[in-house]
Amino acid sequence: MKVNMHEAKSQLSRLGKLAWEGEEIVIAKAGEPYLRLEPYREKKLEPRKLGGLEGKIWMAPDFDEPDEELFEELMNSKIFPDET
Questions:
Q1: How far, in Å, are 26, 48, 60, 79 from residue 54 at the CA level?
Q2: Nearest-CA neighbor of 24 among 1, 56, 53?
Q3: DSSP 48
Q4: pLDDT of 23
Q5: How far apart are CA 6 and CA 15, in angstroms?
Q6: Which of 11, 18, 58, 64 could lock 23 by a disulfide, CB 3.0 to 4.6 Å apart?
Q7: From CA 49, how far away is CA 65, in angstroms rounded?
Q8: Which stretch of DSSP H or E encloses residue 20?
Q9: CA 5, CA 64: separation in Å to the nearest integer?
Q10: H/E run at residue 54
Q11: 27 burial class (0-12, 13-18, 19+ CB within 10 angstroms)?
Q12: What per-residue confidence (pLDDT) applies to 84?
């Protein structure tokens, strides 16, 4: 069912009941579809399962070691290099 905005404002209770019963309600603005009225339904979330990526991710043993070469490059670099 497609209704205009003015009709939707004046008949919201009736439209809400129809939407709850399964009717598709589209509210139009200037003749174009603008909103869809849908009933509220609780989402049932499943508890998250830990360890889903176990054995699929590898991290280098030196991951946390500082990288002196990178550190020197960052600390001694110029923001604006000399123009040649």
A1: 46, 14, 15, 41
A2: 1
A3: P
A4: 96
A5: 12
A6: 18
A7: 31
A8: helix 12-20
A9: 59
A10: none
A11: buried
A12: 57
Query: Tokens standing for 1?
Result: 């069912």
User: Per-10-residue mean pLDDT for the chain, 84 residues long?
Assistant: 95 96 96 95 86 88 90 83 66
What pLDDT is attached to residue 83? Answer: 65
Token duo for residue 8? 């939707």
Q: For the chain, how many residues are written?
A: 84
Query: Look-up: residue for tokens 């991290």?
Result: 59
Q: What integer pLDDT is reported at residue 45 of this predicted model?
A: 87
* CB-count exposure of residue 8 (10 Å: 0-12, 13-18, 19+): buried
